[in-house]
Amino acid sequence: MTASVVFAPLVSMWLVYALAAAAVLVVGLALWRGLSGWWIRALALGALVLALANPALQEEERQNLSDIVILVVDESASQSLGDRASQTEAAIASVQAEIAQMPNTELRIHRVGDGDEDAGTLAMTALAEALAEEPRARVAGAILLTDGRVHDLGVVPNLPAPLQVLLTGREADWDRRIVVKNAPAFAIIGEEFQLELRVEDIGAAPALGAEVELTIAIDTEEPATYTVPLNEDLELPVTLPHGGANVLQFSVKPVEGEITDRNNASAVQINGVRDRLRVLLISGEPHAGERVWRNLLKSDAAVDLVHFTILRPPEKQDGVPVDELSLIAFPTRELFVEKIEEFDLIIFDRYRMRGILPMSYIENIVTYVRGGGTVLVAAGPEFGAVDSLYRSPLAEILPVAPTAQVIEEGYRPALTELGRRHPVTEGLEAEAPEGGWGRWFRLIEVEQVDGQVLMSGPGDRPLLVLNRVDAGRVAVLASDHAWLWGRGYEGGGPQLELLRRLAHWMLKEPELEEETLTAEVKGEAMTIIRRTLAEEDPGPVTIIGPDGTTSELAMPLAAPGRYEAVFQAPVLGLYRLEQGALTRVIAVGPAQPREFVETIASGADLAPLADTTRGGVTRLEPGNPDIRTVAEGRLAVGRGWIGITPREAYLTTEVNVVPFLPAWAWLLIAAGLAVVAWLVEGRKGAKAA
To answer: How far apart (Å, rounded) are the C-alpha atoms in residues 362 and 372?
Structure first.
């Protein structure tokens, strides 16, 4: 129980102050005039002022509250290195024992693991949340048990008591790691760029030589090993081999004595893009579908289109003087001899042999395709004529042979069984309008001699045929009526999507490959996708994790030619997928998770925060420290001990207020003192007389 004097004035306090001031003036005047009873008058006036102030005695019943110490335990991945886990458990037991011996003190333990999406160790956030759960007046101290690698130092709570950092790890710890410094997100295919990385030893590393062997691999290609200097920045020239995702892997051999080998490998994913796609479009004659190809290719800002239409063949003799013609000459030699290798795609749109391209130029095109080039033939009635492209050296790489028949009847293009599985045409049926695709009215009859038929016309005749020729690709569209879909005739069809996919397959875009094993990563979930044209089940996929563990995952059928499965990655890092001859390297999160970028325990980042609260950083390697109580504002850390500040918090359970005297008693006292003062002063005056 505690007692204190409180005031409950009967009038406003400013009036009490005014009366007190007036009383002081009256007493001062009496003292100046030499009245013998001035001090009695002072007591009388004081009694009146106190009566108005109404003093009372307040008694409180208090319940003492215990002090609270918050212990935040870092259980992130880096705390599993070396013997940090055993150090942590021993420190927890020691803190529990020390706090248990302190009277009126409680311990709250909060554990924090790895943050979501490789956010690292969010120990400060955990500490702030722990503080929010407790009354600040009872918090006597906070202890952070960690290796010092905390990644949310910007979230520093306002601590009412000392912050103590108990640091795990050893002074002799060291590690070898790979640091990739300036990996771009995109790079141009075939163009060299510089990638900066560093192989370095951190911590108390022994002298193991000035050089190290670095192994480099791109995707699943055969890795190459180079000898590079240690602890120096390296600039590596890199050229991406293909479009889409390119995974570059770097690794060094583990060294005995280093604290972990998880950061001895690193990987970066760089998307390969083409600088500019150069497409050569040759239209043999003006026709309604010519603009379809032009609009498609011109709509892509990344495409450089060179388009020629043969308006005046050499055999045309109409007597018009040459100097009156506004047509330009077709630069055949420049295009098909000097610069043919610069083109990514050549399209022959209803082209016929009219003596414009010599046979030697056609042979150049064949050589261009076999070396990795691509040719698309959009055929019209001329394809079956005597001047067809098939009557040239190009026939040796074409997958079809014309019969010279032209089918002139209405039909709806259809996907073949193979076409429903092929990425160029997969899912196009879902984009058909109500009632199905619109009709086409012309089909050039051809016979398949090679390749894959994806679309068919009347009588299951081949309509769209694709083929690979050595390193190149060839496609034949046996109709010139694709433009009807673009015009919306009878509901139209997916003209732009079909032609876009066809052009991208010709340009060897990875997402349109027939046999692929890919994965899409979202958080820690990996969606594995297997495309195949084979009718049989490809079987399970083998997954090799960052730590070398192997598992198999069944791949259920998701759509014709497409198998999908979701794999929940147990840890972040680099995963290798294998299925038959196909392999794929996928990074879940960074190849080096944030917890393994800095692995050497250090309190340098946390020391300033602890210092501001009069706490400090204490290593656990020499032994677990004692816990003492220190006065508020005093230094709370020393050799072999850490301190907490007792808060002496309490809870008031009952309050009693008792007035010193009732109001009438104060008035009687004041009146009695006034009478006594009058009598004293009157008697003194009578004697003087």
So the answer is: 16
How many degrees, rounded to 5, is the angle at CA 389 between CA 383 and CA 395? 110
Beta-carbon-side half-sphere exposure of residue 520 (alpha carbons within 13 Å): 7
Q: Take residue 150 and report the two structure tokens written for it.
A: 């905390």
CATH no., domain 513-588: 2.60.40.10
Q: How far apart are CA 481 and CA 290, in angstroms?
A: 10
Residue 454: pLDDT over 80: yes
The token pair at 635 is: 């230094």
Q: Is residue 583 pLDDT above 80, yes or no?
A: yes
Neighbours of 535 (CB within 10 A): 10
% of the chain beyond a pLDDT of 90: 43
User: At CA 59, angle to CA 55 and CA 64, rounded to 5?
Assistant: 145
**What is the average per-residue pLDDT within 73-93?**
94
Return d(Cα 605, Cα 609) in angstroms, integer.
8
Residue at token pair 């791949």: 555
In DSSP notation, 436-478 reads -SPPB--EEEEEE-SSEEEEE-GGG-EEEEEEEETTEEEEEE-
At 340, which helix (H) or strand (E)? none
Which numeric CATH code is attached to 277-314+328-506? 3.40.50.880
Higher pLDDT among residues 60 and 518, named by residue: 518
Asked if residue 477 lies in contact with residue 425, where contact means CB atoms within 8 angstroms, the answer is: no
Higher pLDDT, 338 or 68: 68
Q: What is the mean pLDDT of residues 529-557?
A: 89
Model pLDDT, residue 313 = 55
Residue 69 pLDDT greater than 80, yes or no = yes
Residue 459 contacts by C-beta under 8 Å, 6 or more apart in sequence? Answer: none
The C-alpha torsion from 378 through 384 and 386 to 390, rounded to 10°, is: 50
Q: Which amino acid is at 78?
A: S
Q: Among residues 352, 356, 374, which one has the least CA distance to residue 365?
A: 374
The single-letter DSSP state of residue 338 is: I
Question: What size, in residues, is the chain?
Answer: 689
| Averaged pLDDT, 402-408 | 92
What is the residue-wise DSSP string for 386-453? Answer: TT-GGGSGGGGT-SEEEEEEEE-S-B--EE-HHHHHSTTTTTGGGGPPTT-SPPB--EEEEEE-SSEE
What is the four-CA torsion angle of 123, 129, 135, 139, rounded to 10 degrees?
A: 0
Amino acid found at 337: V
Longest Cα pair distance anywhere in the chain, in angstroms? Answer: 161
Contacts of 655 (CB under 8 A, 6+ apart): 58, 59, 60, 61
**Nearest Cα to Cα of residue 169 among 649, 671, 670, 620:** 620
The edge-to-edge listing of strands for the beta sheet with 550-553 is: 550-553, 541-544, 573-579, 582-588
pTM exceeds 0.90 for this model: no
How many other CB atoms sit within 10 Å of the CB of residue 495? 20
Rg of the chain over Cα atoms, rounded to whole angstroms, equals 45
Quote the CA–CA distance of 309 and 304 in Å, as a whole number.
17
Here the tokens at position 34 are: 């030499």
Asked if residue 305 has pLDDT above 90, the reply is: no
In this prediction, residue 468 carries a pLDDT of 93
pLDDT tens digit sequence for 160-206: 999 999 999 999 999 999 999 888 888 888 888 889 999 999 999 99
Residue 325 has a pLDDT of 44
Contact 438, 484 (CB under 8 A): yes
On average, the pLDDT of the chain sits at 86
How many CA atoms, within 13 angstroms, populate the side-chain half-sphere of residue 83? Answer: 10
Per CATH, the number for 66-170+601-648 is 3.40.50
